[in-house]
């Protein structure tokens, strides 16, 4: 993440802290599902600065065999907008590796990424996670900002 390297910039370190937290949450969700003998269908991953405008209609998102990730088709910044992501269990099992993939990866596509959005795009390519970008009206989060 050359725009804000975690080795030199607090923003980059915060991205990695978020990845580590999300990785631990996914591990906990998988452990709970296993201990209860159930599986989850969807994970909705939101950044903390989002407002949600309408109910989420999960029937708009197809079921799939294998990993699948849905994101918002706006503000892509050279990658995938990471403010709101919806993914299935198979994708979650892969996405929980984002933190470790930053430090240990064999995928050259993750080297020299520009920002968190391009890192996520490279990660989905490296880990073979199909991505579908949804229109904002169908996937209805809006960013809020405090100044």
UniProtKB/TrEMBL annotation:
Q: What is this protein called?
A: Uncharacterized protein
What is the organism of origin for this protein?
A: Alexandrium andersonii
């Amino acid at each position: 993440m050359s725009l804000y390297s975690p080795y030199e910039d607090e923003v980059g370190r915060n991205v990695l802290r978020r990845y580590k937290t999300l990785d631990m949450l996914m591990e906990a969700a998988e452990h709970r599902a296993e201990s209860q003998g159930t599986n989850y269908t969807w994970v909705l991953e939101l950044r903390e600065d989002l407002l949600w405008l309408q109910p989420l209609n999960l029937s708009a998102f197809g079921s799939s065999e294998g990993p699948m990730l849905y994101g918002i088709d706006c503000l892509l910044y050279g990658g995938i907008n990471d403010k709101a992501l919806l993914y299935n269990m198979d994708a979650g099992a892969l996405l929980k590796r984002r933190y470790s993939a930053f430090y240990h990866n064999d995928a050259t596509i993750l080297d020299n990424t520009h920002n968190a959005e391009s890192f996520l795009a490279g990660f989905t390519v490296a880990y073979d996670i199909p991505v579908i970008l949804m229109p904002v009206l169908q996937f209805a989060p809006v960013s809020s900002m405090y100044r």
